[in-house]
Every structure is written in C-alpha cells, then in structure tokens.
Amino acid sequence: MEEQELLTSVDAKLKAEFGDAIISAEMMREFPVFTIKKDKIVDVIKFLYDDPEMEFRFLTDLCGIHFPDNKGQELGVVYHLHNMPKNWRIRLRIFFSVNDAVVPTLTTVFSAANWQERETYDFYGIVFKGHPNMIRIMNVDDMTGFPLRKEFPLEDQNREDKNDSMFGR
Amino acid sequence: MPTNKKDIAETPVINAEKLEEKEYTTLNLGPSHPATHGVFQNILTMDGEIIVDSIPTVGYIHRAFEKLAEHRPYNQITPITDRLNYCSSPINNMGWHMTVEKLIEAKLPKRVEYMRIIIMELSRIADHLVCNSVIGVDSGALTGFVYVFEEREKIYEIFEAICGARLTTNIGRIGGFERDFPDAAWAKIHKFIEEFPKVLKEFEKLLVRNRIFMDRTIGAGSISAERALNYGFTGPNLRAAGVDYDVRAMNPYSSYEDFEFTIPVGTHGDTYDRFMVREDEIWQSFSIIKQAIAKIEKLPAGVFHADIPSFYLPPKEEVYNNMEALIYHFKIVMGETDVPKGEVYHAVEGGNGELGFYLVSDGGRTPYRLHFRRPCFICYQAYPEMIRGHLLSDAIVTMSSLNVIAGELDA
Q1: Where are the beta strands (DSSP E) in A46-87?
Q2: pLDDT tens digits, one per residue of B263-288
Q3: Does B59 sit within 8 Å of A137, measured CB to CB?
Q4: Is the ipTM here above 0.85?
C-alpha cells in the first residue's frame, strides 16, 4: 500500500473510533504522522494494536521532544509504530504543556516502552503515569533539571572562558 | 537432559518468607566485570545458584550524544555515531549519512551505494565475529576467539586503507566517500574474500557441533517470538526467536534490493540460536560482498560521491582556483549550509538490529532534535526476564549472546 493510502485508511479508522482526539493527520516525507490528544494516546495505540486491519504490534521507537516557543504545547512525545507483516510504519505525536507533563504509560501494551519512557523522563521530565519504575536511567539519581530540554546548557553555565556566539547554536 | 535450562528449576519468584529470613544472596555482576564485556551492572538476587531476580543499571558511559548532536553541524555528527556500537561503527556512519541524504533528498550513484554495502557488510562480519567468539569465551573456549580476531584485524586493515581509522572510523561523507577506495584496499578486500571462508569454517568446526558448547548454550536465555516482539527486539536476537524481520529486506536502503541473500531464523530464541543466526548471517554478508564487488566491476570506475556541491566538500585544488568551490568549501566548513525543514526517520540494519535515526530539522545548521533508536538499549531490558530461573553461568552466556555493547546502550 502506498503511504498516502495508509494515511487515509488509518486516519479514517481513528476518526471513526476517537473523533476529536485526532488533531491532525499529515504526510512527513514517507511517514504518515498523526497528532493526538495526550489523554487518548494509549487508547489509540491499543486500538491500533488490537484492530484486525491495523495490527501495529511493534513499538519501534519512543522519544521526547521540546519546542519551548510553542506556548502551552512545549513538550512532546513521539511514537513510531510498525506493522511488520504488512510493513506499515506510522508516527504518532502528542504535545502538551510543560506545566502538565504527565502522560499515560505505554508499558501496559509494550514492554519495550519501559526503559524508553524512563529515558524520556530522564531527559525531558515527562512523567509517565502508571509506569512501574519511574526513575532516571542514564543520569545520576540526584540530578536536578532535565538535560535535553532546550534551556539546559550543553556545558556548565558558569564557564566564562568560552564564547560560543560565533559557532554552534 | 532437559531441553530448556529452565526445567532445572521451576521459574522462581521472590518468596516473601525467604526474603524475610535473608535466605537470598545479592550478587553484583558488574559494573566492571570481565564477563559483562562493557560497563554495566546487574544486581542479582540469588537463591543458591539460581537467579530469582535481577536489576540492570545502565548509563555508566552515557555521553549525552543526543544533546551534543543538537549543537553540531551535520557533518560533525558522524564521529558521534562511531561511538554508539563501536564494534561496527561503519554501519552507524552510513546510517547517519543516509539519514541526512534522505533529508536533503540526495540521490547517490549506484557505485557509491555498492561501495557502502561492502563496508557495511564487512563491519557486520566483524561485529558478529566478536559476538560469536565471545560466546565461546564465556563458555570456556578461548581458542576460537583468538583465531577469528585475526580476521577481524584484517577487516580493520581494510577500513584503515579506506579511511585511515580502524575502530571509530568516521568513514564516508554525506553524499558518498571522502575518496575512492585505493588499490591497496581493493587488494585487501580480494585477499579477505579468498582467505576468510576457510577460517570461518574452522571456527564453526570448533563450536557448532561441540557437545560442551551445545550443552552450555541450548536453552540458555530463551525468549519466545511474542515476548521478543513485545520487548522491541530486532536484528539477530529477534530472528533467533523465529521472526524474519530484517531492515535490509523490509525497507531496502543503499540498493540492498539488488542483492540476493536469505534471512536466517532460529526457533527457540536461545543462546545457541542467536549464535547460529549470527554465524549464518556472516555467510550471507560474505556473499553480499562478493556480489557487490562483481557489480562494482561492471560500473565505470572513479565515481565515489554524489553531485551535491552544497554538502560535499570540493577537491582542494579547486578551492584554491575556483570561486564557486571556495564558497562551498567555506560554507560547509563553517556549517552555514541550509538544510530543508522536516522530520525523517531512517533505519539501517546494524550489528544488533534496527538502528534508527529520528531527525527533526528546523532548517538550522544543526539538527533540532536527533534521536538514536539503539537496538541494544531496547532489547537489554528483557535481560531480567530471560535469565530468571537460570544459573549464573547461563546468565553470562546469555548476556554475551545478546551482544550488548555499552556504547550503544548508553549513547
């Protein structure tokens, strides 16, 4: 199936089942991308897992993203799902406020989500509600701050000997 | 003879009474232990010799690659990818180049794609050789390890002839290679093709039907296909459980669709199956390399990069004599090249499975967000489940057969 057809068919399925919870559906290069309301994300993924025509039963990837300029929608989580027998790949995204960074956990559907959600928590401070072990994974336990957020400096902010205004972001 | 090592003991769960009576022993396996082959820790709860629970701790060599990548121009990210799975860095390098090429929509000449395939398959062989020989080491057979490391050395010599580096290769550029393969490299590749099968056959004679090795590995750390998929396994670890998923066949990149190869699968998903799948994949990779050489010989020589002047550095003599080349050179070196906005996901079949790059570009000089889908990190979380009820020695061969590379685990 062409990706464009996949987009329309998944979109139709999701719209029929969840209605308003599907905020947008678009193509990004070869990927159908769906933006979904935060509270419904696990229900949507569960539906795509169980539905006999969809059967997205493989969680390829889960990661966080931060857009500090999108007020009210600063943080996001991106899910890549894969239907292996038919080789369909889709991307689901949710965006929410940095002040309300609580997302339902996907560990109930995919065991693979366990560490990936911990990693997302570790780097973005997104709390996955219902996760069995919501602690940091890569960084030290007593770290404050979430290093992949854009405001977090790459190097020690107290350094004065380096001027990066010419090079680097 | 139990078919599954778990039959030795009923799969135990932590018994509250025993916990209260302090009948369990806590054993720290790692962070620095010769059997972990990398820096990671497992806190095991043991009932006698049986593992009842384990808590893996990762992150000991976390180097913040995703943060670093947000501050570097695209061509400077390649050396970061070297240090993910450092047993097969060229695959990571190529995966990254292809991700950027997908973003800028560059089309590569066939010859370059075939050259890349030679590099990637050579490094897959090196990766699998390390993993398989280390399973041998962990079950008490050091000879095979020493023997195949000589072949791995020869592969590294090929890399050295092509790019000058051996382990962290930084091989290739966005849009192709930095230079054509020199004659010395071709000579080394041809010599490798000639000599390798004999060595691998001998290595297989040492282990494949070796009674001790089979007793140690069959049934150790088995996982069902269903659980493996749920845990996000990819690559040889998933194929050993019986799922024929291979990115090279499913989503062909770099013209893999032009090649004939089979995808070996196992049945039980245990250590022996993982060993055998890797062993067969080495033969498949070997055949792909031979096909690629044959295809390259039919193509006009001397083509080693795509025609994308805004991303591929011009030759030095032109930079000094040609205004346009000087501008491009300056822009690339200073990281002033604009890239299109957009999101791409590109996956390659790494040594351990689907190595994915999720790249978000806002048009700036650096990626806005770059996420590495690291197969080791995702499959290693199944380790506690795989070793529960096993003996400590089984846990160790299971870990080496998963081929967990600390660099890829921790990013």
Answers
A1: 58-66, 75-83
A2: 999 998 899 999 999 999 999 999 99
A3: yes
A4: yes
